[in-house]
Amino acid sequence: xxxxxxxxxxxxxxxxxxxxxxxxxxxxxxxxxxLGDDLAxxxxxxxxxxxxxxxxxxxxxxxxxxxxxxxxxxLALLISAFVPWLVTPLLMFGGLFLCFEGFEKLWHARAKHVxxxxxxxxxxxxxxxxxxxxxxxxxxxxxxRTDFVLSAEIxxxxxxxxxxxxxxxxxxxxxxxxxxxxxxxxxxxxGIVKLDDLGLWLSRKTAKLARMLGxxxxxxxxxxxxxxxxxxxxxMFMVGGSILTHGIHVLHDGINAAAARVGAIEAxxxxxxxFTPSVLNLLFGIAAGAVAxxxxxxxxxxxxxxxx
Length: 308
Fold this sequence. Notes:
Blueprint: H1 2-30, H2 32-46, H3 54-82, H4 87-108, H5 132-161, H6 167-193, H7 195-203, H8 208-247, H9 249-263, H10 269-302
């Protein structure tokens, strides 16, 4: 009897593991788009940090990301079990927050920072008069806040994939996706921010090919970081706008209808159909972010001053 019970237990475990493997693959495919946005946004957050502090900052944000998911996975399971209707409003609030942060970045980008004499390329991005350590802390906090929203979307998408599965399969799949996504994103971010150091190391080698590759990386690294900064801000609007429009059925249906309409255009229709939802979500995200910043600015303006 004991042997039969053990075999039954092992069979049940094997079945769960097989389900988890299948569900993890499906969830990974569905969250791949968010992973790309997450990568761009977090690489952007390191921009402006002193070179010798890049990896410590990435590690600090990665730890924050693990903590985010440690909170989000149990929370998602509880919400799904007891108040499933709350998932969409929470996601929409997170989407609006992303749009708000994105527009706030554009708004504050108008103020140009004047480099202080003797600063390197990284320090020159620190606002004049601000302590670099304080600037670094703000960068880390901002990155962790942004990661929380994107992590919530990843967890929500994954939860949707495993909604009909057993509780243990849900727990295992969510945990696997949370760990793999975090390691994947921050491992790639760490590699991207150290490309210039790799280029410098290769440029000092005696081999001609190594020096050529090193010089190429040195020239490409700053341009890549600038590109990621632009892509990261655009991703805030695109992801945030997408979350909002998915929660508003009229807009979601309208975007799908617009994509289908342009898809009927001869020759370039399929290309236009592919890009139309992203462009419309981006534009809606910018508009939503502008409204959110305006509302918060008015609230701050008319908020009664605290008495001394």
